[in-house]
Design a protein that fits this description.
Rossmann fold, six-stranded parallel beta sheet, 6 strands
Length: 177
């Protein structure tokens, strides 16, 4: 990674996911393809003592308690993903009401408080929640690395188009992790 890590935080978006919606089976399949890369990113964050921030859909619970969210979302199809990617007690965990990790969440305030101006973003769905989060991060002036092999969408074309926008419009580095 070329970017200095001094001002970097890792942002995982919607990695606690039940995949129980129309298109969820496709997203699950593509998630399984990128899972090893996201696990490596999580290990990289731990090894380099980077703040790790999880921002997740609330699934109607509206409590920023990842244990409850995991219990609600865990199923036979996703338990290996949840087991591999769940937050640790030292990680930050926020819930979001809409697609963007920034929309009506304290994420921007948190990043300002911990003096982070560069985000490494990963998660699901790349063409919706990662894209909307990247748009907001760009508008707030954050630099971004969004590894193309650390996000999944229902359709590969959605991921490709989102990556194109993040690279060309939002100036994100999308090199694989």
């Amino acid at each position: 990674m070329k970017q200095s890590l001094d001002n970097t935080a890792v942002l995982f978006v919607d990695v606690i996911n039940d995949f129980d919606f129309e298109g969820g089976e496709d997203l699950l399949r593509h998630t399984n393809e990128v899972l090893p890369n996201i696990i490596k990113l999580k290990e990289f964050a731990r090894e380099h003592d980077l703040p790790t921030i999880y921002v997740n859909d609330h699934y109607g619970l509206w409590q920023a308690d990842y244990h409850k969210l995991i219990d609600h979302c865990r199923n036979q199809a996703n338990e290996h993903i949840i087991d591999a990617l769940h937050p640790s007690e030292d990680d930050y965990f926020l819930i979001k009401p809409q697609h963007s990790a920034f929309f009506q969440t304290p994420l921007q305030s948190l990043l300002n408080e911990i003096n982070k101006t560069h985000l490494i973003m990963a998660g699901f769905a790349g063409d919706i929640c990662i894209l909307f989060s990247a748009k907001d991060a760009y508008m707030y002036g954050f630099k971004m690395t969004i590894p193309e092999n650390c996000m999944a969408s229902e359709e590969p074309e959605g991921t490709e188009y989102a990556l194109y926008l993040m690279r060309t419009v939002m100036k994100a580095n999308i090199e694989p992790f």
